[in-house]
Amino acid sequence: MEQNNSIPPFTQGLSPQGSMTPGLTLFSPMMPYGTGLTPQPVQNTNSLSLLEEQQRQQQQQQAASQQQGGMVAGSGQTPQLYHSQVSTTTALPGNTPLYNTPLTPMTPVTPATPASESSGIVPQLQNIVSTVNLGCKLDLKTIALRARNAEYNPKRFAAVIMRIREPRTTALIFSSGKMVCTGAKSEEQSRLAARKYARVVQKLGFPAKFLDFKIQNMVGSCDVKFPIRLEGLVLTHQQFSSYEPELFPGLIYRMIKPRIVLLIFVSGKVVLTGAKVRGEIYEAFENIYPILKGFRKTT
Amino acid sequence: MSQGRMIEAAFRRMPSSCPECGSSSVVEDDLYSQRQWVCEDCGSVVEEGLLTTLLSDETQGRDVPYHASTEEIKKPCRNLIAGFIRVRAMCRILRLSNDMESEVVSLFERAYNLPNFLHVTITKKEVLGGCCILCVCRQRNWPVSMGTVAYLLGADSSVIGTVYQELIKSLNIKATTTGITDLMESFCYDFKLGPQQVEEVLSETPQRLLDRMSALIELASDTWIVTGRQPLPLLMGSVYVAWQSLNPSARMKYSFTKFCKIGKAPEQSWRRSRDTALKRVSELLEVLCKLGRELPWLRGVPVEPKTVTTLVEDILKHRRALLSRAIQKYQQQLQNQLSETQTTECDDDPSESNRCEPPSSESSDQAECENPADEEATDCQLPPSHWGKSHLFLPPCVKSRKRQRVDVPQLEVTGDEDISDSEIESYIRSPGEIKLYLKAQKELKQE
After folding, report:
1. Are A170 and A180 within 8 A, CB to CB?
2. Do residue A238 and residue B393 have CB atoms under 8 angstroms apart?
3. Is B411 in contact with A265 (Cβ distance < 8 A)?
4. Which residue, of A5, A258, B1, B361, has the fewest CB within 10 Å?
5. Sign of CA dihedral A200, A203, A206, A210
6. Pairing state of beta strands A260-264 and A211-223?
7. CA of B169 to nearest chain A CA: how many angstroms apart?
8. Between these two residues, A15 and B430, which has the higher pLDDT value?
């Protein structure tokens, strides 16, 4: 385990390429409906699956309409799902491989499930919380004094709060050498950000390492695009749901498998939290979507 | 071994038999601080230890903590007793039946002695009493809202919420949520509008008020006004609209505040949520307007929120039919609009499009005349491609989105990229900056 984790000072890149990131399992398809459909094998490992293609096309259309409304930021690129560059031509699915970038170990491979089975909506990750051990005791006063982007108020909280611009994240650095990194939108961003914080601490003169990086929590959100009858849902799924309009406007659904908490709102927006891997969020949403569709009353 | 220990060891050997009756069942049964060995059969004291303590015992021995002494077993702690008194008082205020009260008290005792409620602040223990009442009332379908419990305890509803969730989780209680319809009846009876209490023209029996109110609440629930909202402001708004609609000609001129004063509603409840209640009133009136426009005998008379109260009785009587009519009409209009835009798009020839335009504008004008409130029905705030456009009734939180959510383009990284030194340097202060910072700190401290 030592080989991945120690940072020799002033080297480029903290861990060798192709190392397995801890705690990530590939997204396994859930077949909750018992249809007996088996997932089709992916034809070409470099091309996107059917689902991703359709989603990408939808998003491109949305981006196009947004551009007309003048709301897209700067570069005009569509919001990305998994891969880096997107060509502007919308090719039909399964024709040619559009991407030459290799699949990174973090990217889950979604099997080509037919669109009518799945919801067609992919939850977007909004926040990742991760922890890492820098492996040495730190003097928080020195860090707060010598770093530009740090704040430290020992009377309020016993840690230095440090922020970096890219990826836009916040870190809590404790005197024991442990660090919590929050605010990233993907696992890779969280890892990169944690490494940058470790480098800053290194440059401030501490023998910081990068031990036991672990993703502790992932938060995703999406919109089912129809209003939901929360009172009906709490009656039929009483053992999982808690709906107290006097306390909170959303319904709190505690799914057992996978162990995810979902906040479901009347507007159709769903927030999923408590995941350790991306696949749990997708699985939880695919589980809840048919239940929510049952409470979609067209009024 | 110390002296005290040696004496202890000497006493620790068990006497084997009782000299009086000869039985071998001799047990150690201490009397307070004196060790005694007593025969079980005849009860005689076979041997006893020292009554007084040695110096070594006093200096090196451990004190008996309160929870290990006999005191605690005999009497319940003071906070528990105070809690019982408070819980019983609240049950009497809420007029719960005797067996419900005893159920609450036993639940409170059980909950109090749980490890996660035993060592908490006194405030939390007080709130625990209220939560036990809430639990039992929900199990017995007795409508009590959290707001009522919060008011009785003088606590914040968020604190009540956390304690309540903890309670049902630790004791595995299954209690259903109190729906708004359950709270209606007790709410209605809060208003003193009987013929003896107010003038004839303003008075209303609770039953009539309740009937009208339940129809309004049912309509509100169908049109997404109820879900996800606090029940109290909506109840207040609907009782106001119900009261007005039962005699519109005489009562339209009374404002909401005036109505609450006439009905002598508890002031702290309506004052706090007055603004929200008025918002609910306007939402309710908007829905009533949308339905009122479908009344066939009106024939084009404009239906406005200010005047719709006169039509409420008719609207509520036929609400099912009016709802389905309004929705069907709306779907039809959407279809028409969609087909119009498609035909105008298909036209390449400008002359043809000129010809097509007048008829399309005519039909859209007609559509507008039929339903002038089409623009209101689908709020202009929504972007044209939004899914909400296809629904006539929407939850208000979807309609009035205050700020567009902008999705920032995602950063594509692998997590293992090189990190440039210059970037890291930008986060570190130069020695000059550090000096300036320390200087400023010193100066601020001197002030």
Report:
1. no
2. no
3. no
4. B1
5. positive
6. unpaired
7. 11
8. B430
The helix or strand, by DSSP H or E, that contains position B281, with its residue range, turns out to be helix B274-292
**Residue B190: φ, ψ to 5°:** -70, -30
A106 token code pair: 């973090």
CA distances to A108, A138, A144, A165, B232 from A161, rounded to whole Å, are 32, 14, 9, 14, 41
The pTM of the full predicted model, rounded to 2 decimals, is 0.69
B91 three-class SS: helix
Q: What is the token pair recorded at A9?
A: 């000072």
Residues of chain A in contact with residue B161, where contact means CB-CB under 8 angstroms, are 244, 246-248
DSSP state of A102: P
| Nearest-Cα residue of chain B relative to residue A102 | B414
- The closest of A233, A133, A178 to B228, measured between CA atoms, is A233
In angstroms, the CA B49 to CA B51 distance is: 6
Residue A251: name the closest of A266, A239, A236, B339 by CA: A266
The residues in A 155-214 lying below 8 A from B, measured between CB atoms, are 164, 166-167, 185-192, 195-196, 199-200, 203-204
Nearest CA in chain B to A236: B176
Q: Alpha-carbon distance B273 to B239, whole Å?
A: 14
Phi, psi of B148 (to 5 degrees): -65, -45
Reading the block at residue B76, the tokens are 């319940």
- Over residues B201-250, the pLDDT tens digits come to 888 888 888 999 999 999 999 999 999 899 989 999 999 999 999 888 88
Distance, in Å, from the CA atom of B149 to the CA atom of B158, rounded to the nearest integer, reads 12
Burial of B71 per CB tally in 10 Å (0-12, 13-18, 19+): exposed
Q: Which residues pair with A162 in a beta bridge?
A: A150, A171
Paired tokens of B16: 């084997």
At B37, give phi and psi (nearest 5°): -110, 125
Q: pLDDT grade, residue B260 (50/70/90)? A: confident
ipTM: 0.73
A positions 210-239 inside 8 Å of B (CB): 225-231, 234-235, 238-239
Return d(Cα B314, Cα B231) in angstroms, integer. Answer: 26
The candidate with the shortest Cα–Cα distance to B151, out of B280, B266, B257, is: B266
C-alpha torsion B161→B164→B168→B170, nearest 10:
110
The string over A60-74, giving b where at least 16 C-beta atoms fall within 10 Å of a residue's C-beta and e elsewhere, is beebeebeeeeebee
Q: What is the DSSP letter of A224?
A: -
Cα-Cα-Cα-Cα torsion B322, B328, B329, B331, nearest 10 degrees, comes to: 140
Q: Angle at the Cα of A116 (from A115 to A121), degrees rounded to 5?
A: 55
CA dist B3 and B1 (Å) reads: 7
Residue B94, amino acid:
L
b/e map B406-428, b = 16+ CB within 10 Å: eeebbbbbbbbeebeeeebeebb
Residue of A nearest to B326 (CA): A299
